[in-house]
Amino acid sequence: MLLIKTNRDTLLKPLQTVTGIVERRQTLPILSNVLIRQTEDKTYFLATDLEIQIKTAVPKDKADVQIFSLTVAAKKLQDILRSLDATAEVSLTRKDNHLHVKSGKSVFNLQILPAEDFPEMTEQIPVTTSLTLKQKELKKLLHHVQFSIAQQDIRYYLNGLLLLAEDNQFICVGTDGHRLAYTATSLQEKLTKQEVILPRKTVLELSKLLTDTDDLIHIEYFQNKICFAFSDITLISKIIDGKFPDYNRVIPTKNKKFFDISRIAFLQALQRVSILSNQSDKFRGVRLLISKDNLCITCKNNEQEDAQEELAIQYNDESIDISLNVNYLMDLLNNVSSETVQCAFENANTSVLITIPEEKAFKYIVMPMRI
Questions:
Q1: CA distances (Å), 65 to each of 3, 197, 232, in order?
Q2: Could you tell me the pLDDT band of residue 65, with boundaries at 50, 70 and 90?
Q3: What does the pLDDT look like over 257-267, one tens digit per residue?
Q4: Residue 232 is part of a domain; what is its CATH number?
Q5: In the listed set 117, 145, 173, which residue is the last one of a domain according to the structure?
Q6: How many domains does the chain have?
Q7: Whose CB has fewer CB within 10 Å in the chain, the N or C terminal residue?
Q8: Cα–Cα distance between 324 and 317 in angstroms, integer?
């Protein structure tokens, strides 16, 4: 039975949208599959890992008259379509428990599993809070904080991003316990306080799918899930059940000694001196010696090798000698696009506050190290 006959990209593009969350090795074989469902007017593609679900749809070709649902290996189908020419015509035919993928003289037979066995997540009722943002706005917020999220930390609530809607503010915070990134944007509507911790995998997938456009994204909070709807895509994610740390206690308020510095110049200097850091160490330290109109950056390793860079700055306060994780600094400088950043200090034993002059809402806090 012929199900679909169309050009390659009509199938490949929606498939690529949903398969980012699919793992080849799953405890349940059906989780390696994509659900393809065709109705009278659209063809839907849906994938899930039981924590996240992504669904997208494309208009149905008028020639495709069949209404059907099936699941097939997502990565295998994607690899097959990628291997074909961009202009190739592809037909999908169902025969018993196999899906025949044919293009020209190429034929592939894939095993299918019943659509009714696919663990589809559904949106819940009631919606506790809903809000709307521009896609480029949310993409920027996520990009500025996601690198601070912990990875596989025993404190499970740090392995996600705080999304807080309160009054007319939408706030994003990420931390791994050693550094913290905070940013916010204004909302048109005033909302009651609603906060969730969004899993790291969801944050990364959402960042990939969002576009740098003024197109809107609609966000709905449920009791234990959150839903993002945008550009014919619906992403539903479970949330991390836990209490996020009080970020307000971490943001320093007494850092009155500061200097502005070129982001690129600072980044390149750090990259050069870090060549002689202890590469095997998880926490690679770099020493900043701040004195009148001068920033000296030094790095040493266990082989008694060292590197030093000096940068001119405008600074006329007491000298500071502080050590920081060089990876934390480079993560920030690689993920923002401003020409300059501002570094503010209280003393050598307290956290550094790094801000972006043209973005007042953004704050990045790094704890000092002992080298």
A1: 8, 43, 22
A2: low
A3: 999 999 999 99
A4: 3.10.150.10
A5: 117
A6: 3
A7: N
A8: 20
What letter represents residue 360's amino acid? K
Note whether residue 74 is domain-resident. yes
Same domain, yes or no: 70 and 105:
yes
Tell me which residue has tokens 């996240």.
52
CA–CA dist 336, 255 (Å, integer): 22
Neighbouring residues of 288: CB distance < 8 A, sequence distance ≥ 6? 295, 296, 297, 320, 321, 322, 323, 324
Question: Going edge to edge, which strands form the sheet with 285-291?
Answer: 306-312, 294-300, 285-291, 320-325
User: Residue type at 92?
Assistant: L
- Residue 370 tokens read as 């002992």
Q: Sign of the CA dihedral 236, 58, 138, 178?
A: positive
- The residue among 138, 128, 361 whose CA lies nearest residue 239 is 128
CA 37 from chain center: how many Å?
A: 28
Flag whether pLDDT at 64 surpasses 60: no
Q: Summarize pLDDT for 308-334 with one digit per residue, the tens.
A: 999 999 999 999 999 999 999 999 999
Q: Which amino acid is at 65?
A: V
Full residue range of the structural domain in which residue 18 is found = 2-117
Same domain, 308 and 233: no
